[in-house]
Structures are given as C-alpha cells and as structure tokens.
C-alpha cells in the first residue's frame, strides 16, 4: 500500500477541474491548497516540460490567482523546473498510514462518536479551528463513503473530524481538538474510532496527512503506530498567495 494520492482526490475533492497538458488544474477554490493546486494527472509521472508548466500556470492566472502546484516527493524533476521558474516550496506534508484493524478500538463511553451529517457543535468546533465554510463544503461534495467524528472530554464537546473511504483506504481530514482539551488523549481516542469505523466499512488502511512542522501531530500519529508512506509540498510563485 503506497499510493494514497487518489484517496486524497476522492475524499477531499476539488469542485471542478480541467486538464491542461499533463496537469489536472482545479478551478479557483477558497477551500485551501489541497483543492486548488495543479498536479500531474498521473501521480506516477515524475516530470513535465517548462512549457507545460507555463501553460498550467497561465490557466491559473486566468482565474485571477497565483499559480500553485502540488509536487510529490517522487517528482524531483518537476520540483527543479518549478524552482528554476521562481516557485517557492511550502507546507511540506507527510502521508502516514496504518492497518485500520491494528488501531481500531471502541473509545470510552461518551468520548467519541461517528455521525453524518455533522452536528451544529461540530461545525462550531471546525469554525473555531479555521476550518471554514469553504472547507466544510468539500466534505459535503465528497461522493465517497464518509462520516464525521465528534469528540467529548470532561463531559464537554471538544473534537471534530471528517473521514472518507476510497477503495480500501480511508483518509481522515479536518481533525480539530479545542485548545482547552488538547493533551488529554481525545485525539488518540478519535483516531482509534476512525480506524474502527474504517475497518467496519471495508477499509484495510487508515491514512492521514500532516505537515512536517506539526511535530506534535507527527509524534501522536507515530505513537499510534502510523508510518510514513509518501511526501509532497506545494510550490507557489514568489510574491503570490496560495489559497
């Protein structure tokens, strides 16, 4: 199990895309980098010509936004072209996985639940954590098997997350734990519930994406037995602003 990037596309989908040469280019979307960045249509491809990069960039500029590319760790040739054209790397991200059955566990009573559609309190928790309406709209338009997770700690609402399944891989997104509830074990309980829901719904694997600078989250996921299987970063034009 190595290629989780089609899972990202299925569980956190762009609203609309267009193919420009070898690139899939999403339409402008306020839902963030994951649904806005151009990427090679074939995740196993490793490069594109400078002219093909420029054509994809021109299409994004025609939308009134800065060109933005997602570059996998297995695409160093593409990375070099973008670097030569003045694109800056940011948000280096690690994909981590675990066999769902190895992590699955029922959380303590009234600690974590799966529920769809999300409750109003989950929306409030996401909103407080910066997961705004544009990002929540992505959850609504995902056509995969999906659910939301709701966490409680010290008898108070404190956590929310979204999870979807593509083929035999589940991916967790938008995990948010209220600041007052952090370092109390809630995130771990929610991850175990995510693994249980995944296994119960036919997924063999549970995956998550985390930026390299989020050392606390990386430590948590590693402590749960999750292992890295890939990396990517975004490249944005100097002076531009990614969505």
TrEMBL record:
Any GO molecular function: acyltransferase activity, transferring groups other than amino-acyl groups
A UniProt-annotated Pfam family: Acetyltransf_1
User: Which InterPro entries does the record associate with it?
Assistant: GNAT_dom (IPR000182)
Tell me where in this chain the N-acetyltransferase domain is found.
Answer: 105-243
Q: Which residues form a coiled coil?
A: none
PANTHER family associated with the record: L-2,4-DIAMINOBUTYRIC ACID ACETYLTRANSFERASE, N-ACETYLTRANSFERASE
Protein name from the UniProt record? GNAT family N-acetyltransferase
Instruction: Specify the species.
Output: Gymnodinialimonas ceratoperidinii
């Amino acid at each position: 199990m190595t290629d989780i990037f089609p899972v990202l596309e299925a569980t956190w989908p762009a609203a609309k895309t267009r193919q420009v040469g070898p690139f899939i280019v999403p339409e402008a979307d306020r839902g963030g980098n994951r649904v806005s960045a151009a990427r090679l249509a074939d995740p196993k491809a490793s490069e594109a010509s400078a002219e093909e990069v420029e054509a994809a960039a021109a299409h994004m500029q025609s939308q009134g936004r800065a060109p933005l590319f997602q570059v996998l760790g297995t695409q160093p040739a593409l990375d070099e072209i973008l670097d030569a054209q003045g694109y800056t790397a940011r948000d280096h991200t690690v994909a981590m996985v675990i066999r769902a059955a190895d992590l699955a566990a029922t959380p303590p009573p009234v600690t974590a639940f799966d529920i769809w559609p999300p409750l109003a309190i989950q929306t409030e928790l996401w909103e407080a954590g910066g997961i705004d309406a544009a990002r929540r709209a992505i959850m609504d338009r995902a056509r995969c098997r999906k659910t939301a997770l709701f966490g409680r700690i010290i008898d108070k609402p404190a956590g929310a997350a979204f999870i979807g399944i593509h083929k035999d891989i589940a991916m967790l997104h938008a995990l948010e734990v209220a600041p007052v509830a952090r370092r109390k074990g809630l995130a771990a309980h929610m991850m175990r519930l995510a693994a249980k829901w995944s296994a119960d719904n036919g997924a063999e694997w549970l995956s998550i994406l985390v930026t390299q600078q989020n050392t606390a989250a990386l430590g948590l996921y590693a402590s749960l037995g999750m292992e890295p299987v890939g990396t990517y970063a975004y490249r944005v034009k100097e002076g531009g602003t990614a969505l």
